[in-house]
């Protein structure tokens, strides 16, 4: 495990203005527009991840002890499948979209044009996926891009920094390593779009910097994702699906269930089933299994470990700061006013709260900030619909967790404090494109009706048809 708080790799901030200027010159010269260029970059991104997959997995393990399957699936695999889908659909996405309306004026269409030079800032929990999935959209849409990986996962940052210039066009894609100073220097530059994933405090910093140049932003933020459990569920399946979503990557997933609101009649059963599931997944000692990750660093370890005291520990609770280890932990009797119920947990600690009925769960969610995701477990379709109708969240998975993110036909993004904008699949392409309205007229016949002098007849007609 690494703890290099001050030894993360950094790019010289002095180089940043020239780097951005070089990318802008390439964009302005039209380098990134041809579909062949976009295709080649996407293919080379796929090749980078194929050729250096094992090295990247090792870096993810050095940073997070990320289980090998999770590293291949949720980081490398997620990007490769996004890139493959973009390659397949590129022609269709980029085709001008004919639209009807007012044919007497001419032919109307929407043309997707690249935005320019975009900045992608990513966090540490899925450091490959969250850097490169937005990049797939940026490249597919024909932009130049600056990538800023998180310094919190320095091994992964270093491996990506080493290989990106060997695979991607250095005249149009640059990777800047570093932390606050480097990101601040980047944010002083003018970009045509900023795509930021991370916490809301820095989201505000990004938006403020963007406002100076009226640069549009996509903010992929976090929040407390509730998991509502009705009284009619199959408790074993429910527990398995909740535990899988909660404890993968040791709870450091933006859409991990943050807390459970369970019908009071099933609380005891659910807690027991979750406890059994943790044993099934990770054995008697989760510290010993390669299938369980670590907290990313000492600061986050302290932050999450502190939350355990906010409830009665019914499973787990063990911590080891020498390894940044926190056991999969279930908490009961947690006060809604405690830190564990006010802060985003972002770790393997799961408070389980009882509710009298689903209406109480809906009220509980409604009294708090809109979450990034929401999970409802129920066999009753009316209950499912009621929750869908009466709550607001970035996305919902009914009777499951996390998986709504896996379908790239669904836009992935937050609402309210959980973020703005969305991506994945075609939605990424749209995020990094401008939808330009084009009306094509013929330079032939030119009725004079709309031109001055208007006179009373034309005015009467305008009045009549308005
Ligand atoms: P982090 O600490 O890696 O920060 C994210 C990025 O912001 C990094 O690249 C970092 O260098 C930069 N940064 C940090 N401080 C800065 C500052 N003062 N000025 C400019 N840039 C700065 O990651 P994090 O914020 O701890 O990430 C965890 C959060 O991200 C959680 O809240 C989680 O829910 C959220 N998240 C959201 C999504 C999503 O898709 N919506 C995905 C993953 C994580």
CATH overall fold name of the largest domain: Aldehyde Dehydrogenase, Chain A, domain 1
The protein's oligomeric status is single chain
Largest sheet: 7 strands, mixed
**Average of per-residue pLDDT values:** 96
Classify the helix fraction into a percent range.
Answer: 40-55%
Strands of the widest sheet, in order across it, are 10-13-14-9-8-15-16
What would you call the shape? globular
Whole-Å distance between the termini? 70 Å
What is the name of the CATH architecture of the largest domain? 3-Layer(aba) Sandwich
Structural class: alpha/beta
Strand residue content: 15-25%
Number of domains: 2
Characterize the structure shown.
This protein is α/β, with parallel strands linked by helices and about 475 residues long. It has two domains: about 5-220 and about 415-440, 3-Layer(aba) Sandwich (Aldehyde Dehydrogenase, Chain A, domain 1), CATH 3.40.605; about 225-415, Aldehyde Dehydrogenase, Chain A, domain 2 (3-Layer(aba) Sandwich). The protein is built from 16 helices and 18 strands. The strands form four sheets. It has a seven-stranded mixed β-sheet with strand order 10-13-14-9-8-15-16, with helices on both faces. It has a six-stranded mixed β-sheet with strand order 5-4-3-6-7-17, with helices on both faces. α3 packs across α4 (about 70-95). The longest helix has 27 residues, at about 70-95. Bound molecules: nicotinamide-adenine-dinucleotide (NAD).
């Amino acid at each position: 495990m690494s703890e290099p708080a001050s030894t993360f790799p950094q790019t010289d901030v002095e180089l940043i203005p020239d780097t951005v200027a070089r990318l802008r010159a390439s964009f302005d010269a039209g380098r990134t527009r041809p579909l062949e260029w976009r295709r080649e970059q996407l293919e080379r991104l796929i090749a980078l991840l194929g050729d250096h997959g094992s090295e990247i997995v090792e870096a993810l393990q050095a940073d997070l002890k990320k289980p090998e399957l999770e590293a291949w699936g949720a980081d490398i695999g997620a990007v490769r499948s996004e890139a493959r889908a973009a390659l397949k659909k590129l022609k269709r996405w980029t085709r001008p979209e004919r639209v009807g309306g007012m044919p007497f004026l001419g032919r109307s269409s929407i043309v997707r044009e690249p935005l320019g030079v975009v900045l992608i800032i990513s966090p540490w929990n899925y450091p490959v996926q969250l850097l490169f999935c937005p990049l797939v959209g940026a490249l597919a849409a024909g932009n130049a891009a600056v990538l800023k990986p998180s310094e919190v996962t320095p091994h992964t940052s270093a491996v990506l920094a080493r290989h990106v210039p060997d695979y991607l066009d250095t005249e149009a894609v640059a990777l800047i390593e570093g932390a606050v100073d480097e990101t601040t220097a980047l944010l002083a530059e003018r970009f045509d779009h900023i795509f930021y994933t991370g916490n809301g405090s820095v989201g505000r910093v990004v938006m403020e910097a963007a406002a100076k140049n009226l640069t549009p932003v996509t903010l992929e933020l976090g929040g407390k994702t509730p998991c509502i459990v009705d009284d009619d569920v199959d408790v074993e399946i429910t527990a398995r699906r909740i535990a899988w979503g909660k404890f993968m990557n040791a709870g450091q997933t933006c859409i991990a269930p943050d807390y459970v609101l369970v019908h009071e009649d099933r609380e005891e059963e659910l807690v027991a089933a979750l406890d059994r599931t943790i044993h099934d997944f990770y054995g008697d000692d989760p510290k010993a299994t390669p299938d369980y990750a670590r907290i990313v660093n000492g600061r986050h370890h302290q932050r999450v470990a502190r939350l355990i005291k906010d409830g009665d520990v019914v499973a787990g609770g063990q911590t080891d700061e020498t390894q940044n280890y926190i056991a999969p932990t279930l908490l009961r009797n947690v006060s809604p006013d405690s830190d564990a119920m006010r802060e985003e947990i972002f770790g393997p600690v799961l408070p389980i709260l009882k509710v009298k009925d689903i209406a109480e769960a809906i009220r509980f969610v409604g009294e708090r900030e809109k979450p990034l995701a929401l999970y409802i477990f129920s066999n009753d379709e009316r209950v499912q619909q009621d929750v869908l109708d009466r709550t607001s969240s970035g996305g919902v998975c009914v009777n499951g967790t996390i998986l709504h993110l896996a379908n790239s036909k669904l836009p992935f993004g937050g609402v309210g404090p959980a973020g703005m904008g969305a991506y994945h699949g075609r939605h990424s392409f749209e995020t990094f494109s401008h939808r330009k309205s084009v009306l094509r007229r013929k330079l032939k016949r030119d009725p004079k009706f709309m031109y001055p002098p208007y006179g009373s007849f034309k005015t009467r007609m305008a009045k009549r048809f308005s």
